[in-house]
Amino acid sequence: MDITNTNPGSNRRLRGGIVGGGRGAFIGAVHRIAVELDGQAQVVAGAMSSTAETARTSAEDWFLSRWYDDFETMAQQEAAREDGIDFVMIVTPNHLHAKAAKAFLRAGIHVMCEKPLAFTVEEAEELAAVARESRVLFGLTHTYTGYPAVREARQMVLDDELGEIRKVLVEYQQDWLMDAVEEDPEAKQAQWRVDPECAGISCCVGDIGSHAANLVEFVTGRNIASICADLTAFVPGRLLDDDANMLLRLQGGGKGTLTCSQVACGEENNLSLRVYGSKGGLEWHQQEPNTLIFKPAGQPWQYLRTSVSLKSVAAAEVTRTPGGHPEGYLEAFANLYRLFLADVRRFIDGTPPVGGYPSIDEGVHGMRFIARAVESSNANSSWVEV
Asked: CATH number for the domain including 52?
C-alpha cells in the first residue's frame, strides 16, 4: 500500500517545522536530531532567521522543502497546505518564544517550545490562555526530564521509597560566560543571553536555573513554594546575572538550596541533584547520566544503571539501548519528542493525549520562578512566594 506524505491520518511520517535555529545557532540542530531520531517525523519547513538570506541559506543547509523569512507567514501558509506541517519547534531567543508560539497555535499547529516559555510572566499567562483556546498540543523542552534515571528517581519518590522529602540540593554550573565573551561579534549565543532586550530579566537563572528548578519539581513532585535568592553579575559591565544562589522551600515542607552559575571556572555542564527523605536519598549527575545512586537508610548505597537495574516502567519506556551503551543528552531530548509525537498522532486519530512531556503549565510556573528570583534578589534577598 502506498502511503503518501499528504495522507491526513497518522500512518505516515509526521511533518515538522522550525522557527529559529539558523546558521550560528546551537540548539536548532539538537532539536532536529532529536525529533528525527526515531524516524517518526521529518523537518520539512522553517523560518530559521528574520534575515531573508540567512533564512534561505540555513534552510538549504538542512535541505528543507520550504523556507520563510518570518514565522507569521509560515504559520498561515503551512496551515493552508494539504501537506503542511503537523507541528513546529520554537528555538528562537526568549523574546520571540511567545509571539511565534501564538502564531502557530492560532493556526491550529502543535507547538514544542524552548524554555523559558516567554519574555514575562504576563506574556506566559497570555500564551497559556491562547493554548487552551486553540486546543492543540503544547510541549516545553525541559530536556533533563527525558533521562531514564531521572524518570526512575521520580517514580521512586512516587512509590514512597524515600519517605517524607526533607531536603533537596540542586546545582547547575558552567563556565562559558566567565569572561566578557559577548564582546566577540561572532559570539551570538552569548550576546543575546546577556541582552535584556532578547533574554528578559535574567541570564543565568532564566537559562539554566530554570532547568535546575524544574528538575527538583519533576523528581520530587513538589513545586517550589518560596525562595530567597541572591543574583550576581560578576563580569564587569554585564547587565544580567551570571550567577545565583537560593534557598528553597517546597510545598509539603521540604527545604533546600539551588545554585547556578555560568562563571564557575572549570565547569562544563554540571547539573546535579540530591534528594533526601526520611527513608533514603537519591543522587544524580547529568554528566554521568546513566547512574542513579540510591541511599537507603542503614544500608549500602545502590548504584542503579540505565537498562540494567532501573526497574520502573517509566524508565524502561524511555530507555533505548542495552546496558553499557551510554544514553545522553540527544537521547533525552529525543525522548521528549517521542512522547510529544505520539500525542500528535493521537490528536490526528481523535484520541485523547497521554502527555509525559513538560507542558505549558510548567512553562508558566517556570516564568514565575525566574521573576520571583529576580524580585527576591532586588529586595535584598528577601523571601518571596513563587
From this structure: 3.40.50.720
